Amino acid sequence: MFYFIIDALGIIAFSISGVLVAIQKKMDLFGVFIIAFVTALGGGTLRDLLIGNTPVGWLKDPVYLSIILGTVVFAILFRTRLKYIKKSLFLFDTIGIGFYTMIGIERGLDTGFSSIMCIGLGTITACFGGVTRDILCNEIPVIFRKEIYATACILGGIVYFLLREFSINDAYSYMASIFVVVGIRFLAVWFKIALPNIYKTT
Amino acid sequence: MFYFIIDALGIIAFSISGVLVAIQKKMDLFGVFIIAFVTALGGGTLRDLLIGNTPVGWLKDPVYLSIILGTVVFAILFRTRLKYIKKSLFLFDTIGIGFYTMIGIERGLDTGFSSIMCIGLGTITACFGGVTRDILCNEIPVIFRKEIYATACILGGIVYFLLREFSINDAYSYMASIFVVVGIRFLAVWFKIALPNIYKTT
Amino acid sequence: MFYFIIDALGIIAFSISGVLVAIQKKMDLFGVFIIAFVTALGGGTLRDLLIGNTPVGWLKDPVYLSIILGTVVFAILFRTRLKYIKKSLFLFDTIGIGFYTMIGIERGLDTGFSSIMCIGLGTITACFGGVTRDILCNEIPVIFRKEIYATACILGGIVYFLLREFSINDAYSYMASIFVVVGIRFLAVWFKIALPNIYKTT
């Protein structure tokens, strides 16, 4: 139940971020819904396709679709007030990528991949919904340009496998890694930290 | 045979729509062919990937490739006259999405998905060829912005499952749903109906 | 061993081409890495997804990831000098598409597809990494617009199946086809040959 609530909060946060971008692009109702959908579920879908874990999850369980539909209706009705909850959104979104990272890592471990590939799958789960959103909106994906986002997922994944190495209880490692992802993202946004700039000399 | 002809007409219409967009973007011959191909088969390909129904259909049956190749050659040779058949094209395209919607729904039923997911798969089959076309041409997908297109597919799918509920003969429900898709799209274009505008107050 | 070296050279050349495009788009370190990755492995990934050959290869063997990581680090460190090796890059890239084409054809033959579909899979393997790179960078794919690139792959594939038809030793056919791909691309670039222009009359 706890996991389900967190998962749902992540989907809601991702959906709302999709709605906001789609509205900015003046999309119609269908477009707004699709952008919300791919933002929330695109990362997990790509992960499942790469693993060969088909049919993809959301086809089998309509709860995902329902949450997204509800969120989109809510977000469109209250679209002028979404700016007031921008901070809560950032909170959900950040907790969301923490959990999505660990969900992706778990799926990788279930299929027996090496730890590096599991971290890759976790990062794909957390980040590629946003990448697909930006491609459909005809933008260069924002996480390729300026934000500490994927980096937080990768570091969280590394911490998880280090803690496992020291045979620490799996539930603790799991939670600790999520805190690492969330913490790094918070610190990066708070202190305006970005990846090292490689363009000074070019 | 009847189904095959309709299916082929849909592929031809979608291919020509791809050729028209690719020519507008000044693509070369290879680019024009690829855009025609993804417009015609992109939706079904995404559906099959999501379901896990691989290898995807067009790899197994070269007839699809042949139809598209022939259409592209024809469309390029007569490219200056394509505007005269624009109305026939719209007809084919609209009949095409009607059939594609039902093909997608059938594939979903075969795999045992819920009716909502089947409608989703039908809509993906009918619409995502055009979405992939627009992405490859560096445009925001047109169906996210202004046309009643996906909405027609969704409503047609709902009608199909309602008719099934009343245990009406499946072939009748099938044809009726196609008429609903085609009819809604015709009416929408005729009366210039779009989805409700959500941008008045923003 | 010989194959591995050529394969690695192809991956390196494709990765560097990805790094160059990503730097031009002012992406950050993570973005540069992802663009290098999809340029090198995007074509093979799409091929494996379409065939249903999952999990995709690079999830199972970390050597691909290692080569790309090493190349990206190298390319970023020496980014100001990359222009001096542009000719070597073109060489690697061209040899790369030759081998990628044949790898794709082989995978198609293993799965029992017709020769036309095998050529299609070879072309996808060689070309769609670059297509994905361009889409993620918000450009219309360059191979749809002006370069003899896919055409070289297609012709190389046709030569391969013609030679097989005459029951020529498979290893010879294999190498001959790679030479055809490489040769056509070299000649096309040397003599500035493009596909016939279809825009004179429009």
Question: Care to describe what's here?
Answer:
The structure is a homotrimer of 202-residue chains. The first copy, chain A, is mainly α and 202 residues long. Chain A has one domain (2-190). Chain A contains eight helices and no strands. In chain A, helix 1 (2-24) packs across helix 2 (29-51) and helix 5 crosses helix 7 (150-165). Chain A is globular. The model of chain A has no long low-confidence stretch (mean pLDDT 86). Chains in contact: A-B, A-C, B-C. Chains A and B meet through helix 2 of A and helix 2 and helix 6 of B.
Features:
homotrimer, 202 residues, mainly alpha, 74% helix
Distance between the termini of chain A: 51 Å
Q: Strand share of the residues of chain A?
A: under 5%
Kindly report the greatest chain-chain contact and the residue count on each side. A-B, 29 and 32 residues
The overall number of domains of chain A is: 1
- DSSP strand tally of chain A: 0
**N to C succession of SSEs of chain A:** HHHHHHHH
Radius of gyration of chain A: 17 Å
Gross morphology of chain A is: globular
Oligomeric assembly: homotrimer
Helical element count of chain A? 8
Biggest beta-sheet profile of chain A: none
Poorly predicted ranges of chain A: none
The level of helicity of chain A is: over 70%
Could you tell me the mean pLDDT of chain A? Answer: 86
What class, by secondary structure content of chain A? mainly alpha
Give the topology, please.
The structure is a homotrimer of 202-residue chains.
Chain A: H1 2-24, H2 29-51, H3 57-60, H4 63-77, H5 86-111, H6 115-136, H7 150-165, H8 170-190
